[in-house]
Amino acid sequence: MMNLLKQFQQHYHYALVVFRELVKTDFKLRYQGSFLGVLWSVLKPLMLFAVMYVVFVRFLKFSDGTPTYAVSLLCGTCLWSFFSEATSMGMRAIVDRGDLLRKIHFPNYIIVASTTMGSMISLLINLIVIIFFGFFGHAEFTWRVLLVPFSIVQLYLLGLGVALLLGTLYVYFRDVSHIWEVALQALFYATPVIYPISMVADNKHFAWAAKILMINPSTQVIMDIRRNLLAPDYVDTVWSMISNPWIQLFPYAATLFILWLGIYVFRKYSPKFAEVL
């Protein structure tokens, strides 16, 4: 029994060391050779936010009528950037590090997990920027801020589950990357990042669509973070828009299902990765 426990501890320690080193290496390589380096992890979402703000807020007059809409747009942009980056880079992680799989024996899932964790580090840096702008953007910081880490964990698990599933498919079918690129674009417009969900909910012809959008896990988690971090009195969530408690729990259950499915598919096909690559 003691030998079994010792072997487990050694295996866990080894996996943790590999995971930590891969996270550091991956994060450094992302900005290797660039003049601004890690600052790009902040500049990219800020530049994207600036474009969206000018186009959709200034020109097209998108707004939810609250003083926090601008910083809420920044928050949504950063959160979506994480999901997009984590799933896209996680999908390619196994193929990109195929040489490592053939040379070193370690749990394959660490490659995908380390890649998505690199994206999470960028998001955590961006959250500091969001909070900074929140002080000047009429954000209401309350005790609900304590709930944000739980939503961040949910967002990470959602991204990890999708990345594990896509990463497995990508090993065998490279066309998956093109399909996911289109799917991401469609999902982006189906998630209220650039437009307030009230724009849909207040339309009498499409009010039903707002509830469907809200049970999408990516919508639910972004709206939860916006509400708890920035504007507890202004932002709609699945809890305020849907009365049925079972439907309210659907996006959370869907996140766990996607994570389980990603792990299941990955574990089933990962033993053959080295041969295929």
TrEMBL record:
Subcellular localization(s) per the UniProt record: Cell inner membrane; Cell membrane
Membrane topology: Multi-pass membrane protein
ABC transmembrane type-2 domain segment(s): 36-269
Pfam families, alphabetized: ABC2_membrane
Domain of life: Bacteria
Swiss-Prot/TrEMBL keywords: Cell inner membrane, Cell membrane, Membrane, Transferase, Transmembrane, Transmembrane helix, Transport
Transmembrane segments: 34-56, 68-88, 109-136, 148-172, 179-198, 246-266
A GO MF term: transferase activity
Chief site of localization: membrane
Biological processes per GO annotation: lipopolysaccharide transport
Cellular component terms per the entry's GO annotation: plasma membrane
Family indicated by similarity: Belongs to the ABC-2 integral membrane protein family.
Name recorded for this polypeptide: Transport permease protein
Taxonomic lineage: Bacteria, Bacillati, Actinomycetota, Actinomycetes, Bifidobacteriales
